[in-house]
Design brief:
Elements (H helix, E strand, L loop, with lengths): L1 H18 L1 H5 L2 E2 L2 E7 L3 E8 L6 E10 L4 E26 L7 E24 L5 E12 L2 E8 L3 E2 L2
């Protein structure tokens, strides 16, 4: 009997959460597609929203070999309209096994209020020559209680 009551309460809570407009808009990953640009010393992931989110429009992250054991990373988030907060976080990952697995070695956070864009970069980060590096981006647009997010990730780049 207790199981039936618990199951009934859980079912009502689940149905209530699904029908709540606030529950649907609280935190949404916006569908989109990625375009990758790669050169000898740079890798970029540019994400475009296809299912137009209410706010989030585009996200870009990139990594560039700055030479002599140094890399630079950057990230940009674009919104369709002015938001309360637009953010981008850029994470630097390193592989010591030739690019098979990566671990995070740095993180850089940027935020702008009452705008439709946010850009940030960190230049001349000291790294180990000969290892592979990539950048990951976390992008968000926040307006009221609506939070829309997406992620980007560059291809691996061997540092000179």
């Amino acid at each position: 009997m207790k199981r039936k009551i618990i199951f009934l309460i859980f079912s009502m809570v689940l149905v209530g959460a699904l029908w709540s407009p606030q529950g649907l808009k609280a935190n949404a990953e916006v569908p989109g597609y990625h375009e990758y640009v790669e050169t000898e010393n740079e890798s970029i992931d540019h994400w475009y929203g296809i299912s137009r989110g209410t706010y989030l429009k585009e996200g870009i992250c990139g990594i560039k070999d700055a030479g002599e054991g140094r890399v630079s990373v950057s990230g940009t988030t674009f919104a369709h309209a002015v938001c309360d907060t637009v953010k981008v976080g850029v994470y630097l990952d390193e592989s010591s096994d030739g690019g098979s697995s990566f671990s995070q070695i740095g993180s850089y956070y940027f935020s702008e209020n009452n705008t439709a864009t946010c850009h940030g970069s960190k230049a001349n980060i000291s790294v180990t020559s000969g290892r592979y590096y990539m950048a990951r981006g976390g992008h968000s647009a926040i307006k009221g209680s609506t939070v829309e997010t997406t992620t980007t990730k560059t291809r691996a780049l061997k540092c000179s």
